[in-house]
Amino acid sequence: MTQLRFIDLFAGIGGFRLGFTQAGYQCVFSCEIDPTCQAVYANNFGETPFADITKIDVRSLPDFEVLTAGFPCQPFSICGKRKGFEDTRGTLFFHICRIIEAKQPAIAVLENVKYLIYHDSGKTLAIILESLEELGYYVSYALLNSKDFGVPQHRERLVIIASKKQVFNFRNLSLIKPIPKLKDFLCKDDKFEYLLPDEYTLIDNPKHQQSGLIFTGYRTNKSIWKKGVRPNTEHLSRVHHQPNRIYSVEGIHPTIPSQETSGRFFIYIPSEDRVRKLTINECYKIMGFPEYFKSCEILGSSYKQIGNSVCVPMIYQIALEVKKELSQPISKLIQTNIYSSKQLSLFS
């Protein structure tokens, strides 16, 4: 098979591009509106993405086989009327559909947050799926977790794949076992920020959660949380606020969010019996970004960008399976209409 081409929409800092180029694809177009992300993208890939997806002239786009997009979940203007493609007008998702309709790629790979599944009681996702079906695609979706692809991070993301050829089989993805531990991804030498012993409290018998997280303590120096808190319940005001939780490096790390621009991710290192912040370099490592990747020099922007990005090894495995499925003959199930895109599978 000749080299497959793809376009990188809502590109961010290039997580999709890293995964697909590592799998042997050629990126022929990129689009990202955030100037700080554009700068990082250009610094790593040698091109500045087109800014505004709403202004793309589809006639000027080069040909490509695969479309990728980590699109934002923008509220739908008339969500719930179940008119499929028509219901997406006025949203950013519509512009993805507009490009798909004009260029007819073999496959579109879309990524979003887990809660898109439940948004508006599932009506938003239903319209997205129906819109892609109306454009002539078999559509399937799955909830994938970064921890299953070789990085120590519990990060669930919804992946939607629309294929001209046949229903994409998520169960063919190669998962990596056992799940790695966070301690194996820590930097040996960096600008470490340790907490003082009176700034945190460790709990007895840390709970090993089914997700792989080990909640081991919480910060205690934040006076804002002490006001109005009943005696002996101080920890309860911290357990449910991510910036004040502490997790053991013997487990994995929770999802790195884009909202935490101060990088308040605290880890307990049993071998040192100390608590410190996860460094920005470690954040990039547990998202699967290569060490040579050049992140934004503004620390707050860098934390936001990596929290908004995608798990590169997960995207890489998707890219490999997409390539494999494009090279295979059309499934007999599709030919006999036994299996249709209405039968959506949730992969776990």
TrEMBL record:
What family name appears in the similarity comment?
A: Belongs to the class I-like SAM-binding methyltransferase superfamily. C5-methyltransferase family.
GO MF annotations, alphabetized = DNA (cytosine-5-)-methyltransferase activity
Cross-referenced PROSITE patterns, in alphabetical order?
C5_MTASE_1, C5_MTASE_2, SAM_MT_C5
Which segment of the chain is annotated as a signal peptide? none
- Species per Swiss-Prot/TrEMBL record: Pseudanabaena cinerea FACHB-1277
Q: What is this protein called?
A: Cytosine-specific methyltransferase
SUPFAM superfamilies cross-referenced by the UniProt entry: S-adenosyl-L-methionine-dependent methyltransferases
Q: Does the record carry Transferase as a key word?
A: yes
Superkingdom is: Bacteria
Catalytic site residues?
Answer: 73
Alphabetical keyword list: Methyltransferase, Restriction system, S-adenosyl-L-methionine, Transferase
Record-linked InterPro entries: C5-MTase, C5_DNA_meth_AS, C5_MeTfrase, C5_meth_CS, SAM-dependent_MTases_sf
Q: What class of enzyme is it?
A: transferase
Pfam families to which the protein is assigned, alphabetical: DNA_methylase
The gene that this protein is the product of is dcm
Q: Does the keyword Transit peptide apply?
A: no
Q: What is its EC number?
A: 2.1.1.37
Report the CDD domains cross-referenced here: Cyt_C5_DNA_methylase
